[in-house]
């Protein structure tokens, strides 16, 4: 049998423009210590750095979220059959929740639930730390490691003083390079917050037993319809098109559309809703080739869609996720809205609609590539 290698990833993934830049191939290359692969530019696919050290083992090819080699094994692991029968993946229960801790609620993206759960796990020593993401500008994030409540609060979604950084930006993306952080810290029990593409890579690594994926205690997945990529010129286009300044964006929420909360000395506070299809030209191109909206391989998934302002939609999936969430509820650190079966059905229907739309978007995009 011929083993496919990074050479094949270049042909089948990079050249088609569908590399999601997750960094899995770079970080978990069997010969990573010799820097076989690397990102010359963080916003373009990785490249060979020392090709002569490649062992041609094929690990990079198998764990890439765009080759789908392990899909059926992962689907068995998560009792998940296919997107047509269950577009939101296997799930146990759905909730709509809010943090009771004022700091997490105030600084949280939606209901502050993800950070509350991470803080609970840190306090109870269920984890040593968590890979999260700091927001620098409205569309610029960087992976970071949190070991305390204050680290978590610093990584919360609020916009700080971004104006000086905006001047320095040449390119920025809302996508966070979390996977390369695994190799930087020595941990025994880690929580990871991430997007569906990242958890696809992580589950492949766990399935193959690629170190240090065995140390990942829990995968807290975010819903993700798309991420954005801005070059300096695009920021100017964006400001002209939507008639507000990047520097006035205080917060971004994503529900049925993208909600910008603005603050400015003259206008005061203002909320602007922009539909996803108006943001197409700012989207990361590879997101077109992604069909998972609800993070089907997470232990628990979280999103804004389906819940009112200041609440997070929570979907428990695995046994581990279910047990953790039940401990969190027992600890009384979050509250849940009362949802009767009709409300739950409506939430599932709405989330399924977005999932279907993402599946369709990928199908059409891939058809045009053929
Ligand atoms: C890029 C992106 C796209 C999203 N798209 C949608 C969408 O289309 N529809 C929808 O309903 N919801 C979407 N969400 C999820 C939603 O915005 C909230 O993150 C989610 O509801 C959790 O809110 P919370 O208040 O409970 O989280 P919080 O308590 O505020 O905690 C969020 C935690 O996640 C960490 N984090 C944030 N982004 C990342 C990241 N990229 N990688 C790793 N850690 C991260 C933060 O550091 C923080 O620790 C998206 C989130 C992101 C980051
Ligand atoms: S050593 Fe293995 S994982 Fe690394 S680039 Fe070569 S084939 Fe890929
Ligand atoms: S999607 Fe991830 S694993 Fe696949 S080629 Fe791109 S960076 Fe590497
Ligand atoms: S849409 Fe989200 S999950 Fe899919 S490739 Fe883009 S960032 Fe990753």
Bound molecules: flavin-adenine dinucleotide, iron/sulfur cluster
Q: How many E-type strands?
A: 15
Look at the helices and sheets and give the structural class: alpha+beta
What average pLDDT do the residues reach?
Answer: 88
Oligomer: single chain
Q: What is the domain tally? A: 2
Our Rg estimate from Cα atoms comes to 20 Å
Strand content: 15-25%
Choose one word for the global shape. globular
* Uncertain spans: 158-169
Strand order of the largest sheet: 5-4-7-8-13-14-3-15
Describe the overall structure.
- The chain is of the alpha+beta class.
- The protein folds into 2 domains: 1-69, Alpha-Beta Plaits, CATH 3.30.70.20; 102-369, no CATH class.
- The chain is 32% helix and 21% strand.
- It has helices spanning 6-14, 24-27, 59-63, 71-77, 102-107, 113-123, 149-154, 163-168, 196-208, 232-242, 319-331, 341-369; strands at 37-38, 47-48, 93-99, 129-137, 140-146, 171-173, 190-194, 216-222, 229-231, 249-254, 258-264, 268-274, 300-303, 312-316, 334-336.
- The strands form 4 sheets. An 8-stranded mixed sheet has the order 5-4-7-8-13-14-3-15, sandwiched between helices.
- Strand 10 and strand 11 form a beta hairpin.
- The longest helix has 29 residues, at 341-369.
- The radius of gyration is 20 Å and the shape is globular.
- The chain starts with 5 loop residues before the first helix and ends with a helix.
- 41% of the residues are buried.
- Mean pLDDT is 88; it is low at 158-169.
- One iron/sulfur cluster (SF4) binds at residues 9, 13, 19-25, 45-46, 64-66.
């Amino acid at each position: 049998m011929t083993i496919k290698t990074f050479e094949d990833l270049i042909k089948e993934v990079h050249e088609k423009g569908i590399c999601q830049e997750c960094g899995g191939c770079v970080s978990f290359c069997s010969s990573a210590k010799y820097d076989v692969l690397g990102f010359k530019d963080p916003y373009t696919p990785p490249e060979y750095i020392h090709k002569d050290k490649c062992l041609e083992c094929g690990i990079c090819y198998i764990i890439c979220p765009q080759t789908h080699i392990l899909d059926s094994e992962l689907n068995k692991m998560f009792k998940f059959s296919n997107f047509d029968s269950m577009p939101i993946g296997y799930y146990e229960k759905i909730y709509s929740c809010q943090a009771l801790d004022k700091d997490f609620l105030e600084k949280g993206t939606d209901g502050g639930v993800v950070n509350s759960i991470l803080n609970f796990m840190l306090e109870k020593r269920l984890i040593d730390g968590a890979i999260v993401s700091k927001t620098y500008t409205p569309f610029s994030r960087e992976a970071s490691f949190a070991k305390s409540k204050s680290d978590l609060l610093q990584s919360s979604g609020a916009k700080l003083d971004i104006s000086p950084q905006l001047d320095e930006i040449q390119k920025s993306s809302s996508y966070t390079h979390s996977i390369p952080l695994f190799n930087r810290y020595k941990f025994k029990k880690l929580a990871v917050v991430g997007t569906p593409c990242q958890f696809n890579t992580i589950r492949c690594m766990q399935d193959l037993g690629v170190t240090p994926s065995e140390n990942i205690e829990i995968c807290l997945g975010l819903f993700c319809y798309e991420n954005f990529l801005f070059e300096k010129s695009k920021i100017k286009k964006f400001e002209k098109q939507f008639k507000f300044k990047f520097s006035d964006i205080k917060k971004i929420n994503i529900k049925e559309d993208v909600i910008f909360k603005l603050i400015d000395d003259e206008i005061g506070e203002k909320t602007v809703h922009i539909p996803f299809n108006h943001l197409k030209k700012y989207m990361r191109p590879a997101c077109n080739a992604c069909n998972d909206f609800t993070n089907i391989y997470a232990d628990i998934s979280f999103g804004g869609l389906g819940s009112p302002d200041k609440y997070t939609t929570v979907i428990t999936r695995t046994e581990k996720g279910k047990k953790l969430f039940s401990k969190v509820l027992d600890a009384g650190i979050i509250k849940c809205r009362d949802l009767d079966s009709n409300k739950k059905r409506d939430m599932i229907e709405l989330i399924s609609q977005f999932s279907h739309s993402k599946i369709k978007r990928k199908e059409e995009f891939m058809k045009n590539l053929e």
